[in-house]
Specification:
alpha/beta, GMP Synthetase, Chain A, domain 3, disordered N terminus, 21 helices, 2 domains, 8-stranded mixed β-sheet, binds adenosine-5'-monophosphate-propyl ester, Rossmann fold, 7-stranded mixed β-sheet
Length: 661
């Protein structure tokens, strides 16, 4: 793990070149919901009371008996034990009951330009109908339901329908391959699948039902499939198993009693890449999760439900969409924009056209997108009136100061605070972020832990590193939205997150971090074998096993290479059976193969064919040296290699025959 220091040295230099700081503007502060820094002290003094206060923002059928119980041996938290709650009730019914049924929950824009709006009353009715359909098809409390869809309004309704009846949803991002979908369905033994015929993406049709059919060939747990008609092309059909959404949902009652769930009942599983090829089923529960996401959404984005139009551009297939398109915003009665497609369809100004059309006030997007917009140039945002914007957020990867400043100036017109939010699928909610009415921001820094969240930066031995130094970020106390386990594999949960600093009670996110003299946190990227490509988390091992699954490939090693747009890009070193050097066509075929095994977002940008890989005497591939090769750095210590000439050869091969996409 320590072998990432040279990468981080470079990152730190670039980060600290920007010296400007940005204090909250007085006009913004005037109406900001949190403007008194005392909130940090209050939360620090008694964090359980703080979180109980946040939990009271929700409606409970039954009040909890204890705020937090912590089982240190199993690293298991129980938040709000004894409390009974329903997530969909909190996201829908209570707003409708309070007279806000006609407020828009989602203003949806399809990629081809078609639009639909769902008010809170309509979303409640749709959720209830879908929940009743699931029940009719035999789905019961505790069953797992896989969801494989594009960004259509029925997708949030599907999550909410599951939570309404106490079923556990397992959303699989619509860009994943059949194999990836199958693995996730199998791991969760899902009983039903909700999907759609096809989806739109950059003018092309994504054949979701086709891919799902492939996945279902080896998914015996699936008994029923609900298929939404979105695009309209014909699909294969398995009678008895497959049901059209418009047949089975439309005829249901629009009333469905919400299940009273224990606070600690599972809400969902969401798979994320780890350091092995097998994805991890991160499990979140109900009461603490909803408390964490609604509180952070409210105060970090400074949401006033009667004023704001919130747009989180993530896909609901990732955690950002779960927490900040579905559960957080709806729990806070927010009006949100939901967009189906890509930022460059039909032209590169699509995002800004949407901001103008819907008067978006708060925009939450990823650094990769921001850097792409920078590359396209300021003429695209300039085509539109974006004066409605009042706050900007960033998530998914470290934001370089240059992109931060561009975002602030070109998109925010210099008047919008920028919140860089650091968190993970595992944390469920934002952990580090400025509070826009309080925090003086520094471009490139996620600033400080949210009130009630406790972090530190430590060295290898777990000792706190004094301000000004760098090491690993750790979370030192439980938080309500934390993952509770990995689905069906608590041992792996303990090994992954707690083996390093668990004896100190610290959760280990596997991110490097530096704190400056003023205590600001500067996140520096992963310290394990996980890559972050365009904000997508991809395991090096997952890509390696996709390579070796190809009949031509004997062995492969995958590392990341810094990339101006995507943050990191996938660089693969491949040994062919027989040891020859592959052609450009071979490289393209391998790229296609990896995309078909995992998903198009995992296509390797660089492929270097090599007869050998650098290995230690015990046979371990030295990825550090391969990273040095890709970054054109002098090769570090090679004395532990079994054969030191191998890496020199690879460096020559990477120079002379780069196979770049
Ligand atoms: O390395 C960190 C990076 O993304 C990882 C989490 O990825 P995932 O679980 O897919 O969730 C992404 C959306 C929350 C982290 O371990 N990361 C996320 N946000 C930031 C970040 N790195 C730096 N700054 C951020 N704001």
């Amino acid at each position: 793990m320590a072998d990432q220091t040279s990468d981080q040295g470079q990152a730190i230099e670039a980060l600290f070149a920007e010296k400007r700081t940005f204090a909250p503007a007085p006009e913004f502060q005037k109406t900001a919901q949190w403007k008194d820094p005392a909130v940090y002290e209050r939360a620090a003094k008694d964090f359980e009371s703080f979180w109980a206060e946040q939990a009271h923002r929700l409606d409970w059928f039954e009040q909890w008996k204890t705020v937090l119980q912590w089982d240190d041996a199993r690293k298991a938290a129980r938040w709000f034990d004894g409390g009974l709650i329903n997530a969909s009730y909190n996201c829908l019914d209570r707003h409708v009951d309070a007279g806000h049924g006609s407020q828009v929950a989602f203003a949806w824009e399809g990629e081809p330009g078609d639009t639909r709006t769902f008010t809170y009353a309509e979303l409640l009715a749709e959720t209830c109908r879908l929940a009743n359909a699931l029940k009719e098809l035999g789905v019961k409390r505790g069953d797992r339901v896989a969801i494989y869809m594009g960004m259509v309004p029925e997708l949030p309704a599907a999550l909410l329908a599951c939570s309404r009846i106490g079923a556990i949803h397992s959303v699989v991002f619509g860009g994943f391959s059949a194999d990836s979908l199958r693995d996730r369905i199998q791991d969760g033994s899902c009983k039903a699948l909700i999907t759609q015929d096809q989806g739109w993406r950059r003018g092309n049709k994504i054949l979701l039902k086709n891919i799902a059919d492939d996945a279902l060939k080896a998914s015996p747990s699936i008994e029923k499939v609900i298929v939404l008609k979105r695009v309209g092309d014909a699909v294969d059909w398995t009678p008895g198993r497959d049901h059209w959404y418009h047949d089975v949902v439309a005829r249901q009652s629009d009333k469905c009693e919400p299940e009273k769930m224990a606070a600690e009942d599972p809400l969902y599983i969401l798979y994320s890449s780890g350091t092995t090829a097998r994805p991890k089923g991160i499990m979140h529960t109900t009461g603490g999760y909803l408390t964490g996401v609604s509180s952070t959404h409210q105060y970090i984005f400074d949401i006033d439900p009667s004023r704001d139009v919130f747009w989180c551009t993530a896909d609901i297939g990732w955690v950002t969409g779960h927490s900040y398109i579905v559960y957080g915003p709806l729990a806070n009665r927010t009006t949100s924009v939901l967009y189906e497609g890509t930022p460059d369809f039909p032209d590169k100004d699509r995002f800004w056209a949407i901001v103008e059309k819907y008067n978006v006030t708060v925009l939450y997007t990823a650094p990769t997108a921001i850097r792409t917009f920078m590359k396209w140039g300021p003429e695209y945002p300039k085509r539109h009136d974006m004066s409605s914007l009042r706050l900007l957020g960033s998530v998914g990867e470290p934001i370089n100061p240059e992109a931060w400043i561009w975002y602030s100036e070109q998109i925010g017109g210099g008047r919008c605070p920028v919140v860089d939010t650091w968190w993970q699928t595992e944390t469920g909610m934002i952990m580090l972020s400025p509070l826009p009415g309080i925090t003086k921001t520094k471009p490139g820094s996620a600033t400080f832990p949210y009130p009630g969240v406790f972090a530190d930066v430590v060295d290898q031995s777990g000792k706190s590193v004094p301000l000004g130094g760098g090491g690993y970020i750790v979370i030192t106390k439980p938080w309500p939205a934390m993952l509770r386990t990995l689905w069906g594999d608590h041992e792996r949960y303990l090994a992954t997150y707690w083996s390093k600093f668990g004896h100190l009670g610290y959760y280990f996110p596997a991110d490097g971090c530096k704190r400056d003299e003023e205590g600001y946190y500067w996140l520096l990227g992963r310290v394990d074998d996980v890559m972050n490509v365009s904000g997508h988390r991809i395991s090096t091992m997952e890509v390696e096993s996709a390579f070796v699954d190809h009949p031509m490939v004997a062995e492969s090693a995958v590392v990341s290479k810094k990339d101006d747009i995507t943050g990191e890009a996938i660089a693969a070193f491949v040994t062919l059976k027989g040891g020859g050097i592959g052609s450009k066509e071979d490289a393209d075929n391998l790229r296609k193969h990896v995309a078909s095994k995992i998903g198009a977002f995992a296509r390797p940008k660089y492929i270097t064919f090599t007869p050998d890989l650098p290995k230690t005497r015990s046979g371990k591939i030295m990825r550090r040296l391969l990273r040095d090769v890709m970054e054109n750095r002098p090769l570090g210590d090679t004395t532990t290699l079994a054969d030191a000439t191998v890496v020199k050869n690879i460096a020559d091969l990477a120079q002379s025959s780069p196979t770049e996409e």
